[in-house]
């Protein structure tokens, strides 16, 4: 489960950064909306998967609600999932 959660966290972080760093500027500055649509769909799916896997992972590890909230908030911040991976997940590997 740890490998799955770490992979999901990294992919979700990459999709989040590519959405805001690449496709949003293309959409608003270059009038090219198509990449934003597809990366947005991928990010949405990865975000939902991240939250579901985080719930299962915290349940398995018997982590308290505070740790889950930290992991959830990390998914809302740019570079947050990378921080959560380094601080909370990498030490378990």
Can you describe this structure in just a few lines?
It is a multi-pass membrane protein. This protein has about 90 residues and is mainly alpha-helical. The chain has helices spanning about 1-30, 35-60, 65-75, 80-90.
Main beta-sheet strand count, sense and barrel state: none
User: Runs with pLDDT <50, length 5+?
Assistant: none
Structural class label: mainly alpha
User: Over all CA atoms, what is the radius of gyration?
Assistant: 14 Å
Strand content: under 5%
Judging from the principal axes of the Cα atoms, what is the shape?
Answer: elongated
Oligomer: single chain
- Ends: how far apart? 11 Å
| Number of DSSP strand runs | 0
Order of helices and strands: HHHH
Number of domains: 1
Helix residue percentage? over 70%
Mean pLDDT: 93
Total helical elements: 4
């Amino acid at each position: 489960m740890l490998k799955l959660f770490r992979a999901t966290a990294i992919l979700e972080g990459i999709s989040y950064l590519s959405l805001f760093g690449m496709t949003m500027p293309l959409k608003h500055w270059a009038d090219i909306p198509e990449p934003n649509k597809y990366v947005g769909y991928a990010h949405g799916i990865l975000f939902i998967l991240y939250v579901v896997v985080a719930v299962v992972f915290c349940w398995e590890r018997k982590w308290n609600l505070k740790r889950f909230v930290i992991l959830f908030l990390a998914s809302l911040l740019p570079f947050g999932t990378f921080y959560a991976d380094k601080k909370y997940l990498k030490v378990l590997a």
